[in-house]
Amino acid sequence: MTTETNGAAAPKDAAKNAPAPANPSTAPVAAAAGTNPEKLTPAQLKAKAKAEKAARRAQVKENRAAVVAAEPAKKEGADGKGGKGKGKQDGQPGQSKGHRPSMSGRRPSFPGTEKEKDVRRGIPQCFSHVPMAKRIPTSEAHKDVHPAVLVVGQQMATFAIKDSISRLEATMLALRKVIESYETPEGNSLSRHLVPHVLNPQIEYLTECRPMCFAMGNAIRLLKAKINSVDINDPEDEAKEDLLEWIDTLIKERINLAHFVIARTAADLINKGDNILTYGRHRLVEKTLLKAKETGKEFSVTIVDDPYDRGGLVLAKSLRRADIPVLYSPNLGGLQLKVATATNVLLGGEAIFANGSLNAASGTADVAMAGRKASAKVTILCETINFDRERVSVDSLTYNEIDPERYTADSFRLLFDNTQDKYITGVVTEFESGGGNSPAQAILALLRRQEDPLIA
């Protein structure tokens, strides 16, 4: 009896002495299957390919299991982040209105290569929604991001530009350069191509560097609405010129002119002999105090400084150069005693919500509450571009950021706090109806009047 093992060929003599097949037509097939292993039938080829595919799959599974076993910290880091679904502020932390996928121009990231991921690993899950500024290397930015936008993103991520109005102005000037260099591709229209294919990558990059502030969100929405209103039959040069002029007008009216009007209106609220108390350094408060001094009013200023930012020290030097008496306190210690001697508390805001609550630098709420307890007037200075008519805020965790410079796995500092409207006497804006000093609850009415002057 002849035995064939592992497809080995039979001896030549055995092949010669084998009986001839009953059907001569099957002889070549039998020879191919039995005597020549290099030639296989279609069924055998299919079975062989299936076996090789199964072997490859098994090898891939083994490699994946080895990677998981070698890097257990990867899963722990993902759990510590509390998932990927962070919101964006346009105002709001993380991606606004849903999570956006990461930009297509990015190189893949690996565990331990990004400092931000390692640091956030220690944040409790209940705070995982609070975002933090992150410096993104320009080499990892989307290929369509304009160089001017790259510069602004880096400045925001490193806090070289940090207050909301400075970020708004830098953003609009950068987008102005984007529009200047834009050319509508053949077969497209400016109103339908510019926003989704050109502006959105710029905005996404900026918001990944640092969550969008309220002023940026409002201005970008207005810009998109302006672009969408462009007639598709308008010449491209005229449409671009109109958009550039609109950006210049927004900066002039909503920033420069607003600062002038707010400073003049708030300066009228300061009387001779007043003691003005303020917190940290805010652009509008500084302009107001200098404007009041220019009008010949004599008053003194008490500055309670943010112990981490130290902007109040810069303000104190600026006021002293203008011959304004200044009492400087490096922190919130003894706040009740300082507020007790104040006749007016002037505070700046980063945003005001529809329910009248104030979003401002951390520590502002403490000063406002102490001021109201001491029966002092608490006046907020804020541009209307920072108003949010759609959202309300009752705590400091919904719309906030983690300070990337003062943060460890054991503790972290929030950049902003929330002041309820009951601690605010009035709000001064560039909208002068009603004397420019309106209650915080009247925020929506102010916006409606600004958009439609016919409303009484």
Automatic annotation (TrEMBL):
Composition bias, Basic and acidic residues = 49-64, 72-82
InterPro entries (UniProt xref): IF-2B-related (IPR000649), IF_2B-like_C (IPR042529), NagB/RpiA_transferase-like (IPR037171)
Superkingdom per UniProt: Eukaryota
Tagged with keyword Protein biosynthesis: yes
Q: What is this protein called?
A: Translation initiation factor eIF2B subunit delta
Q: Which UniProt keywords apply?
A: Cytoplasm, Initiation factor, Protein biosynthesis
Cellular location(s): Cytoplasm, Cytosol
Q: Which family does it belong to?
A: Belongs to the eIF-2B alpha/beta/delta subunits family.
Q: What is the annotated quaternary arrangement, including any partners?
A: Component of the translation initiation factor 2B (eIF2B) complex which is a heterodecamer of two sets of five different subunits: alpha, beta, gamma, delta and epsilon. Subunits alpha, beta and delta comprise a regulatory subcomplex and subunits epsilon and gamma comprise a catalytic subcomplex. Within the complex, the hexameric regulatory complex resides at the center, with the two heterodimeric catalytic subcomplexes bound on opposite sides.
Q: Which GO terms describe its cellular component?
A: cytosol
Q: Which GO molecular function entries does the Swiss-Prot or TrEMBL record give?
A: translation initiation factor activity
Disordered: where is this region?
1-122
- Indicate, by first and last residue, each region the UniProt record lists as having compositional bias (Low complexity): 1-37
